[in-house]
Amino acid sequence: xxxxxxxxxxxxxxxxxxxxxxxxxxxxxxxxxxxxxxxxxxxxxxxxxxxxxxxxxxxxxxxxxxxxxxxxxxxxxxxxxxxxxxxxxxxxxxxxxxxxxxxxxxxxxxxxxxxxxxxxxxxxxxxxxxxxxxxxxxxxxxxxxxxxxx
Amino acid sequence: xxxxxxxxxxxxxxxxxxxxxxxxxxxxxxxxxxxxxxxxxxxxxxxxxxxxxxxxxxxxxxxxxxxxxxxxxxxxxxxxxxxxxxxxxxxxxxxxxxxxxxxxxxxxxxxxxxxxxxxxxxxxxxxxxxxxxxxxxxxxxxxxxxxxxxxxxxxxxxxxxxxxxxxxxxxxxxxxxxxxxxxxxxxxxxxxxxxxxxxxxxxxxxxxxxxxxxxxxxxxxxxxxxxxxxxxxxxxxxxxxxxxxxxxxxxxxxxxxxxxxxxxxxxxxxxxxxxxxxxxxxxxxxxxxxxxxxxxxxxxxxxxxxxxxxxxxxxxxxxxxxxxxxxxxxxxxxxxxxxxxxxxxxxxxxxxxxxxxxxxxxxxxxxxxxxxxxxxxxxxxxxxxxxxxxxxxxxxxxxxxxxxxxxxxxxxxxxxxxxxxxxxxxxxxxxxxxxxxxxxxxxxxxxxxxxxxxxxxxxxxxxxxxxxxxxxxxxxxxxxxxxxxxxxxxxxxxxxxxxxxxxxxxxxxxxxxxxxxxxxxxxxxxxxxxxxxxxxxxxxxxxxxxxxxxxxxxxxxxxxxxxxxxxxxxxxxxxxxxxxxxxxxxxxxxxxxxxxxxxxxxxxxxxxxxxxxxxxxxxxxxxxxxxxxxxxxxxxxxxxxxxxxxxxxxxxxxxxxxxxxxxxxxxxxxxxxxxxxxxxxxxxxxxxxxxxxxxxxxxxxxxxxxxxxxxxxxxxxxxxxxxxxxx
Amino acid sequence: xxxxxxxxxxxxxxxxxxxxxxxxxxxxxxxxxxxxxxxxxxxxxxxxxxxxxxxxxxxxxxxxxxxxxxxxxxxxxxxxxxxxxxxxxxxxxxxxxxxxxxxxxxxxxxxxxxxxxxxxxxxxxxxxxxxxxxxxxxxxxxxxxxxxxxxxxxxxxxxxxxxxxxxxxxxxxxxxxxxxxxxxxxxxxxxxxxxxxxxxxxxxxxxxxxxxxxxxxxxxxxxxxxxxxxxxxxxxxxxxxxxxxxxxxxxxxxxxxxxxxxxxxxxxxxxxxxxxxxxxxxxxxxxxxxxxxxxxxxxxxxxxxxxxxxxxxxxxxxxxxxxxxxxxxxxxxxxxxxxxxxxxxxxxxxxxxxxxxxxxxxxxxxxxxxxxxxxxxxxxxxxxxxxxxxxxxxxxxxxxxxxxxxxxxxxxxxxxxxx
Lengths: 150, 727, 419
Ligand code: FES
Ligand code: FES
Prior knowledge:
The structure holds three protein chains of three kinds. By secondary structure, chain A is of the alpha+beta class. Chain A contains five helices and five strands, in the order ββαβββαααα. Chain A has two domains: 2-75, Ubiquitin-like (UB roll), CATH 3.10.20; 80-143, Orthogonal Bundle (DNA polymerase, domain 1), CATH 1.10.150. By secondary structure, chain B is an alpha+beta fold. Chain B folds into three domains: 32-192, Aldehyde oxidase/xanthine dehydrogenase, molybdopterin binding domain (Aldehyde Oxidoreductase, domain 4, 2-Layer Sandwich), CATH 3.30.365.10; 204-276 and 325-416, Aldehyde Oxidoreductase, domain 4, CATH 3.30.365; 296-322 and 419-449 and 484-725, Aldehyde oxidase/xanthine dehydrogenase, molybdopterin binding domain (Aldehyde Oxidoreductase, domain 4, 2-Layer Sandwich), CATH 3.30.365.10. Chain B is 28% helix and 20% strand. In chain B, strand 18 and strand 19 form a beta hairpin. In chain B, helix 2 packs parallel to helix 3, helix 12 (519-537) runs parallel beside helix 16 (692-707) and helix 15 crosses helix 16. The structure holds FE2/S2 (inorganic) cluster (FES) (2 copies). One FE2/S2 (inorganic) cluster binds next to loops of chain A.
């Protein structure tokens, strides 16, 4: 049994200790936000927040999580970033979007007034294939109170 | 196009697909997909409580089609959007609209639904008129209700209960006056976005059925690899493993949990021994190889006319490598064999053709296969969505009763999806003393762009199975849609022109449809060459295009993009580029002007401002159009700047994002603005792929302007640019 | 080379204040002696033959000029990069042809003097972060080629930020003393015992490539230790392994493998360039294969020829490794199938210090725009110091037969803190 705290709730899951958090979130806890994109730490679609930092849940064995706080998009409760993404209609297929929202949320929590350069560099770890980049950037700017559209 | 030949009929010829639609030559054509599925109740049903169900055979691919179709139906019916349930492709419920591809959804399904809903509204009004004993013209509709001038009203549900909608649509419908549209032409937030922003179930990847198992396939490491004997015993004993499925060289594993399935898959990969052959071509010379393979020459057009004497003649060759769809979410499917029926939840682009293919693979009658579309990650054409459904059914058959979810691994997606074809275009053209193009000779060499499965032989698994089904030969897609020759017919008015498509049947590398098909290279070539000729004629690229355009809508789009960009004729050397195309010469018009910088020391291209103008006919959701064009621009930038599938003689080497880099945020353009030309009342023009070709050419033209070098071989990678500009 | 990291084992043990005092004491003594004249400015831009510019570009790549002197690709060679040293931060200057802030007014003679003696056009000493103790051996012809290359770069008007050095190190005159002690001018001397290729490689490695700036240990005054050339050093807290007999590589470096590694940043028997070395191999990708191969010939001749060790991997099935690393580095993981070596062959895993392993776990390998190149995410946020230390210990015990590293948690904390 592995104990972990997700979105403020304690869970006990019957998972092998090497299981990456991604599969525990999806298959044991029934959460959809974190997505399998590569399993190699290259695309960011599995991004969640652990202790305030954006991490790639596909490479995070659950055994390293004891005593740490995991947050997923399900736990954001409609934050400014989510609202901004909706306002900007910042999705095409949307598969990358939950990861984008999580990474952007972590950025704005640490740096509420990021520059355009900060935003682009920070988000560059996450891939989007649909080419929704401009809207995602606009959404992050909007969430940071810098107005939306580029 | 012959009006009685449906598009699907054409695709049928193209792909060898046999579709059993009667062609009603004696009847006038119905609009959109009503041609093939005329019955109104195939598209729309109204329940006694007034709730409306609209059916479409098209699927949501992230292009926003659900929202646009809802807008159309709500507009023509006068029903609130919230009152409508939209059912997308399902072989037991919806019309067969073939594939959701080629930017056809609005043209086919949007048109069908617009006309069907308009006709149903007409029937409802007529029924109310009969009931109230008044003339039809005196009635109005709003909020699912028909109202008479005297204040009487009746709900759609009540009326519909007495109506028979199982009637064929009329060829012509009375549509609303576009000037009165409240929903069509107005931005509407996409209905699929909220779930995607909150972690709601949104994709087939998110399905969890009771008792569901997780499976992984073990792919052949290279084309044609044969699985040799090995001991799967230790893997069957691994925790959670339910079964190792082996049929010939087909290998898969099923487990209780996903991570268990992945670990077992890795163990199987380590244990399995394969006999491989060097079946891939030499990447360094593959374009020459293709150019030399036997080809079937298909004339696309020949124009002969009076023209001035040529004073300048230019010749160029443009090429593109194999490129990947590269969905961010690897393909996934869920299947369950129960009560003799195989049910498959899939993000295929064509549930009906896939049903036939899966039935073939399983040796089942088609009635025993049921395909239901559930959204997946964006696919951008024929990627592994169909093939993973093949895995799901083969594995589900081995564990009857249990639903099985299969998702491909990243490296499986990268190395096994069918790629976009490598292509070559050669063009020769001449201008006269007045700067008019007087001669144009264009040839394009390509494999097929359509290996979408409609029979079992076209499924990836087929070759691995013990008794493979016959594989139909690759076939070209005829014009006006075209495959490799898509958009090879210039939209410009040249007095003399010859265009030939050289269809290459032999496929050294497995390829199929990638967003915009041959249009990407053809537009890149034509629009690059237009700039080359303009330069030869000493003309401004925008003015030069306008001078050769006769189509007024084309001119309007070109002028609008130039104006919004602030294009100044004759101003050169600042890294500005322009390009234009009408997708397939049938769909949306799209012109792009952009600015970029070339980093002299590295050859990196830095995209600045991008301005696009687009004419999509009647606009349904303007924000949806903008989103599609923006996406096409960024995706095409990635293709054009970076992408090439790499392989050695046996295996694909682009196994993941480190081996197949794509555009990241740091390199996204500074800004993109999309301007829409409103065309109320005009037919819908497919927009989803209209931006790809123009973006590629606009980049190349701007590189020429910025750095003085003309690059004709995609990608315009930093080392290539650097090599061209020199020290 | 990203850095001339002037920090040595000895230096580390001294407090910074004492180092400064020692430096001052030693250097001021010799410092007064020498005065250098300004060299007259040149006006206007000279023309250079294209072949000379092209050769200069290749030499500038071997010499990594752009690594320190470029911070922003849109303003190449306009500098601004701060190079951390144990004494303070020294900023790379603008070496574009801008006459006011760059070297636009420098004659070839002035440029040659800077490369040979570490004296700028106006006669001021340059800090040996500029590896003039290496460049001093470069031929007139090669210096002229690099000059031609730099003088034909687009001028960028940009001042470098002021260096952050304490007194008296901020008095450039102290460098005269340093030079007396550690600069031994004179041309490169070919070794007749070796063939032309070897000698060419030796010249490129020593005089232009200045590999020793990172791979040779330094003394308390930041000078490369005499007699210990290429015996292993450090750069920005990364371990720079020995490039001679002491190389910890598990499989012998051959001319082929070194040439491949240097030219592409990756070799199937040794792995990927990481940390500051990535910038070096990126530069070497621009250099003609024959030159890189010559460098490989020279370096390989100094490398040990270990008997191939058959690596027995004692896979303890560590859950952190399996969940975090196994997707790429596990048995038959996709990356290993595309030719990446087993961790057992990794120099970092077999090195005397855990620094390389810790750095790679914490920082990963950055993505490179549009380039098919090894990439690894950072685990800095995912793993705690203790988890990184445990993982490093596991890698050492599983993939190497060398003794366990000591003091891992402290090393992790130090490296994380130094980011
Ligand atoms: S799925 Fe985790 S980074 Fe791609
Ligand atoms: S919206 Fe489809 S991958 Fe980003």
